[in-house]
Amino acid sequence: MEVPPPLVLKRHLYVPSKTLMGPGPSNCSHRVLEAMSNPVLGHMHPECLQIMDEVKEGIKYIFQTLNDATMCISGAGHSGMEAALCNLIQDGDVVLMGITGVWGHRAGDMARRYGAEVHYVEASFGRALSWEELTFAFEAHRPQVFFIAQGDSSTGVIQQNIREIGELCRKYDCFLVVDTVASLGGTEFLMDEWKVDVAYTGSQKTLGGPAGITPISFSKRALTHIRKRKTKPKVYYFDILLIGQYWGCYGTPRIYHHTISSTLLYGLREALAHFCALGLKAVVRRHQECSKRLQLGIEELGLEMFVQREEERLPTVNTIKVPFGVDWKKVAEYAMRKYSVEISGGLGPTVEHVFRIGLMGENATVERVDMVLSILNEAIQSIKLKAVKTERSKI
Ligand SMILES: Cc1ncc(COP(=O)(O)O)c(C=O)c1O
What we know:
The chain is α/β, with parallel strands linked by helices.
């Protein structure tokens, strides 16, 4: 039997232009897209290694860290989560997952695969974890690793007190892993000052870079622990000692670990360069101002934010309650069909309950906020009107 070449691949590639205002990815700037059309470099070529060094400096800035073990995992945000847990966890370790949406559950699933005994501390729906919930869980479980998403993109909840959690982890001699995939650039994050042991973020959210290359950093304390492991991390691809050697983190000769995508590196390098030129504080301020404007607009439209407490709202991924009787899918379809604008529905526990509007990177501007508010309103009114007409036609 011979399998013929597929007919679909005879057609030209078609990619529509969309405004990505869901939970990510956000749109890449022209600067990032142009950078990615540069010629491919070999993964050990000195020019490629030089770009990796520049990317490392950018990551240190965005995390506010001096950690040597700062690099990227070649993979999407999930690969950062895998690498963080895979390197820290040994069989039988007690791991505590902070739950403010889906991401703690997903990290729990991963940690169990790496041999951990997993426990959960869960916030009330739409709330951040309280200090009482946290301290009670630490005392009850005495974890060796604690995981928390600073911003949970499924609920739009932000966990503000990472600094205090860092202190709590030190008190219990526990490693602190913080997922900043959806939060970095939208709120303050000070890795070293807050005693965070592992942090990773998404390249495709506020950074506005390409997906598939994940910045990550390990503290000296975490690295010492990893060097002393009795067994090697269970996944070769995520072994931070090997990846870090390729990234030139440890002052040893660089050795091949995998073939990095030079194209993604260019895109991330330019996204970081843009972010650094704007400055961390200014980027955070802009994202927060845009979110405030969106929240005001939502109220004016007679809609309601899902997260009740203003201080617990994630500025980057905003969750809005779906009005009673409205089909969120039809609203999202309307926005896409008529305006090529992505408005997303919920994820995990918020499916069917919320719209998620992302204001990140290129899309965190006053103009985009006003545009998405107007489209959301028009779409909801149109869907409501259609529903009334359908009801009437039945009479
Ligand atoms: C908080 C958080 N963590 C992890 C991820 C996973 O990232 P990716 O889809 O790039 O694997 C996401 C994705 O939206 C996220 O919002």
